[in-house]
Amino acid sequence: MEFINSLLELDPNHILFVLIIVFFVLETFINRPKSVGSKMNHLFQNFLFQVIVFAMGSLLAFIIITTYGWIDDYQLGLFNSVAVPYWMKIAAGVILLDFSDYWVHRWDHRFPLLWRQHRVHHSDTSMDASTSLRVYPTDLIFFTVGEMAISIIFGIDIMSMNIFLFILIPMLFLQHTNLNYPVWIDKVFGWFLMMPNYHKVHHEQDQFYTDSNYGTLLILWDKLFGTFKIKPVKEINYGLKEFIGSDKQSFLFQIRSPFMNIRPVDKES
């Protein structure tokens, strides 16, 4: 338990920087892109979104710490009203946080105003691990508010959030990396986890596939609510057609795009 606590106390920003370096080196060494400079520019444009996230860190930390402080002080939520073993409360909390992210993600695709911010993440036509960094700041707040709402309803412990984030950060890099791995890994772990090959389907240009595979960690919700789809990775065209072009891939264009009336290009049915 002491070892787990020491891992959870690691600074998420330090973990993030290590993952950025590791995946950039692996993708460059294994895939050997024609232009390393172009790949570095892609990473730089995506990393600029994280600069804003770093600046928002205090706000997000305040929201999270204040919410869990209220839950603890006032014993809010279901788990504080009934006798539940601590380990079960923690495990259930992680699952429920993932459940919240699933629905927030679906709403991002369902409602036009939310899609305007979320489509920034989907606009990347050269998807690699750094695509996980391309998250619009308000979208991140939206996900956090959803997680805090479900935490209050069920009385989730902050330990569940720490474990959830500790698993989530590297998982996001894995889900977006353009590294290949053996198919048997999907068969072994894909029955309960949102594996990279499944999440990549979610980044297909065809709206039929874009509106699927919303799960963050668990594949359970997509299979339960009928939003799970598969497609061979080699056949996937990444991004959104209306964002094709180097000028539309820049950070400055992307950060303005939610306020622009960008009509979607007709997609395949």
Report on this structure.
The chain has one domain. The protein is mainly α and 269 residues long. It is 62% helix and 0% strand. The mean pLDDT is 93. The termini are far apart. The protein has helices spanning 2-8, 12-31, 36-55, 57-74, 86-110, 112-122, 137-154, 158-176, 183-189, 196-201, 207-210, 220-224, 251-256. Helix 4 (57-74) packs parallel to helix 7 (137-154).
List keywords for this structure.
269 residues; mainly alpha; globular
Estimated helix fraction: 55-70%
How many alpha or pi helices?
Answer: 13
Write down the overall geometry: globular
Q: N-to-C terminal Cα separation, in Å?
A: 51 Å
Oligomer class: single chain
Q: Structural class from helices and strands?
A: mainly alpha
Rg estimate, integer Å: 19 Å
State the order of secondary-structure elements, H for helix, E for strand: HHHHHHHHHHHHH
Uncertain runs are none
Overall domain count? 1
* Largest sheet entry: none
* Number of E-state strands: 0
Strand content: under 5%
Mean pLDDT: 93
